[in-house]
Amino acid sequence: MAERSAKGRFFPPYYKYPVFAFCGFELLLTACILAISEAYYKKGSIILPISYEMFQDTLDKHVPGFTWNNDMRALLESYRFKLMCLWAVSAVGVTISMLFIIPQFFDYNDARGNRSQLCLVRKKVGLILTIMMAIFVVVLGITIIWAWYDCRTAAMLFHEKFDGCEKEEIYLTKLEERLHCVLDDDREVPAVERCYFQAKASFLNPHWMDAILGAYLIGHALMILTLPLLNRQLLPDDDEDSLYGNEEKEHIEV
Asked: Are 159 and 53 in contact (CB under 8 A)?
């Protein structure tokens, strides 16, 4: 293949090396997002319904300075819905990243019997895969920014209301049963096993979303910047497995 300029190597067709790097990063990022969003969605599905009862009970008792309304509830429900969307998008990301990486381990023949890497031999397939990955990266970014946007506001609201509400025994018992924790009056257990600590920790810390957004922006910027370095023949072909000479390789890769 005639050596392309650094600018030209930003674009398809791609060797397997940038595919490994980009999809590997995508796999790692989406796997982390998947784990975080799933864990906190499950915790939120436990703590929020009980918290709503506690907040409403406190409102009904006319506790001075305590407010609770449908807009506040909608904000917390939006937080939970966004976690579910983040989980769904990241699950798709894990799947397509693995599907895109696996074919890069094999060689493929063109119509003339020449063998090379998938995106070099099947350029249309490579272009389609590139477009699919680009669309996914944009969708993932939009979802992350959407979830990040008011995560801090939702977290502050939850902690403010949870700290200020009346904690009746009936609700604490529900928390104990659902979270498998110990009520705070037992001073012999570690703090992490107490219901109050677990309830507070069940809401996603905004710093996690800051980290996810930062990893998304910085990681993709680095991946794009390294494309010219990776999008070339970094390692020599295995001559024993090669079915073609240099002239034929240049023909299929131009």
From this structure: no
Q: Nearest 5 degrees, angle CA 153-CA 42-CA 148?
A: 30
Nearest-CA neighbor of 218 among 25, 19, 10?
25
| Mean pLDDT estimate for the chain | 82
225-241 tens-digit pLDDT? 888 887 766 565 554 44
Distance CA 234, CA 244 (A): 18
Q: Determine contact, residues 138/144, Cβ cutoff 8 Å.
A: no
> Each residue of 135-168: pLDDT tens digit?
999 999 999 999 999 999 999 999 999 999 998 8
Would you say the pTM of this structure is higher than 0.90? no
The domain segmentation of the chain, as residue ranges, is: 8-162+197-253
CA-CA distance, 194 to 203, in Å (whole number)?
Answer: 15
Tell me, what's the pLDDT at 190? Answer: 67
Torsion of CA 60, 65, 71, 75, to 10 degrees: -110
Between CA 197 and CA 182 the distance in angstroms is 10
**CA quadruple 46, 213, 34, 195: dihedral positive or negative?**
negative
Per DSSP, the three-state class of 6 is coil
Q: How far apart are CA 39 and CA 68, in angstroms?
A: 26
